[in-house]
Structures are given as structure tokens and as C-alpha cells.
Amino acid sequence: MAGILDKMAFFDAIQRAESSVEPYTTSETKPLSQLRGNKKGAIGPMQVKAPTAADPGYGVPNIFEIARGFGFDVANEDIDTARMLLQDPEVNRAFGEAYLEGMLNKFGNMDEAAAAYNWGPGEKGMGGGAAGMPQETREYVSKVRQFYNQATGQTMPVNISPRPKMRPKGLLDQ
Q1: Distances from the Cα of 20 to the Cα of 44, 52, 82, 124, angstroms
Q2: Which residue from 57, 43, 52, 89 is spatially nearest to 70, judged by alpha carbons?
Q3: Of 44, 86, 103, 132, which has the fewest beta carbons less than 10 angstroms from its beta carbon?
Q4: φ, ψ dihedrals at 35, nearest 5°
Q5: What predicted TM-score, i.e. pTM, was given to this entire model?
Q6: What is the pLDDT of residues 64-101, one digit of tens each?
């Protein structure tokens, strides 16, 4: 159905764009077993960074809560524990899906939610349309839309304004 977001297809499109659905990948394109002392890179099939997982904001449960839902006994809620939990593909996917849902709730459409997932929801260009986004993020949104359209049979173009939107200050700044 055109116009109705298929959330599972959207989630799968993000996962394909992030990691080609490879469960043990990192942003450095090395297997987790080869990363020694990696403290910054994105991890797993949803390419999540540990600080985001530990404190996601936007009404999204953190990685520790999600891991407990999978039966993990989480004693420490720190970055190293978050990094370890992100290495479990199912926990990684569950967190990524919850975070993506948070972006959908915040921005209201899949293209801006995808941009926020890639670039970060707090970036100044969010809400300002494509003009405020880096080229990498615009290409990412286009790739996600392509994967989504392939999965759903839709042919909808990317829905991000080419110029900044005008809105009263503070209206959406919460």
C-alpha cells in the first residue's frame, strides 16, 4: 500500500544500508575479533556506537534494558558493557529497531528518521532539509529509500525538503 510505512521493510532497509545484514561487522570493516582496543566504532548489523546504546534518549530504552529482556544478567551499565552487548546480533538488532522507532516518532517520516539514524538526531541540519545534511547522509537516505522501495514495490522518491523549513523556535525543540 502506497503511503503507509512498512516498518519491517524500513528496518530491513536500514540494516542493509548499515551492514549488508552482516551480524559481526564494525564501522572499520574488520571482524570484531580483530579489533583490539576499539573504543569508538559502530558495531554489529545495525552499526550502533556504544555511547548511543548506553544513553540513547528520545524515549528509547538503553542497551542494558534491552539485553535484560533477552535474559542477560547486566551488572555494570558502562560503555564497555554496552560495547560487549552490541556484539550480540539479536540485542544489536533489538536496540537498533527501538532506536529507529524513536527516530520515526521524533521526525515523523522515514527519510528524516533514516537521516537521523545515520547522522545523529541532534544535528543542526535535521529539520532543515537536505541542504543542511552532509553528502554522505543524503546518499545514505537515498540508499535506504532504494532498499525500502525494492522490498515494498513502491517507487516513492526521497522525502526530505531541499531547503530549510521555517518553524517557530522552540516548537519542536524538546
Answers
A1: 10, 21, 22, 28
A2: 89
A3: 132
A4: -90, 115
A5: 0.78
A6: 999 999 999 999 999 999 999 999 999 999 999 999 99
